[in-house]
Amino acid sequence: MSTLTLKGPYWLTVRQHRRALWALxxxxxxxxxxVIALRAWAADPYSVPTPFPNRGYSVLRLSxxxxxxxxxxxPMLVGAFVAGPLTARELESGxxxxxxxxxxxxxxxxxxxxxxAAVVTVLGSxxxxxxxxxxxxxVSGTWQLHWADRGPYEAAGPVLAAYCxxxxxxxxxxxxxxxxxxxAMAVTGFLTGLTLLVLGxxxxxxxxxxxxxxxxxxNTASLMPHSAxxxxxxxxxxxxxxxxxxxxxxxxGNLGVCPADMNxxxxxxxxxxxxxxWPTQLIETSLVLALAAAALYAAFRIVGARHR
Length: 308
Prior knowledge:
61% of the residues lie in helices and 9% in strands. The protein is an alpha+beta fold. It has 2 domains: 8-205 and 276-306, no CATH class; 210-275, no CATH class. Strand 2 (229-237) and strand 3 (242-244) form a beta hairpin. The chain has helices spanning 8-16, 18-21, 23-43, 55-72, 74-93, 96-100, 106-136, 152-155, 159-178, 181-202, 249-252, 277-306; strands at residues 210-215, 229-237, 242-244, 264-272.
């Protein structure tokens, strides 16, 4: 990363952490080369002698599975770096005072940290998401690579960049509050990961699922598109009461046979169609960015209050 056009605290921030700031672009370039090679292999699986003619496709699919899981940790790594080496270490060692002697205010010092980290993070995470989508497009819909699965969902959309920005915001906030490098890194990683888990558990409640019904008995496979995400399925009685799908089999031993006294009339399915993917991404991205903005506001309030 060039420091020729940067001045003041921005130049100093990039100069101090130039090697680490090159990490995301370097990973993106390496990932792009790997994905292009794997796609070429998968498109011509007989180009390499092997007893498994679909070996290239299998390697690509497995690589995308691991890559999606790995990108889940990217926001936590970004947050840990911003909290530790970028913020807390300077406060812990006292080197931040040097910046204040160079006609720089505390808010300008913190703003340089935030802006440099945010720009590199957004560009790097967007590039990684694009690289991931390039490979994932060839294997999407297979086991653990469905559009709604944990990993592919985060890695293939704007929500990845939003979570990385949340890591930046939490990093500068926790780094100021804790002022111990390793502890700040651990706390920020934990908080970022916790947010990922909580919003991941809630995301499919942002939009109401589609409800489909059919007379009982019947084959419910025809009710839901193959690409949809199943949320719930069960039975409906004559009174409109919903029962679990296994309610009849507990008494009759047969999923398609219900006792007359249960008055079961139909099946129901609740699912999210693939058309809910982008609206859910945008809603979750907005929520995460709002949390990041709140954390940044708190961080600047703290630095302003401590160094008036």
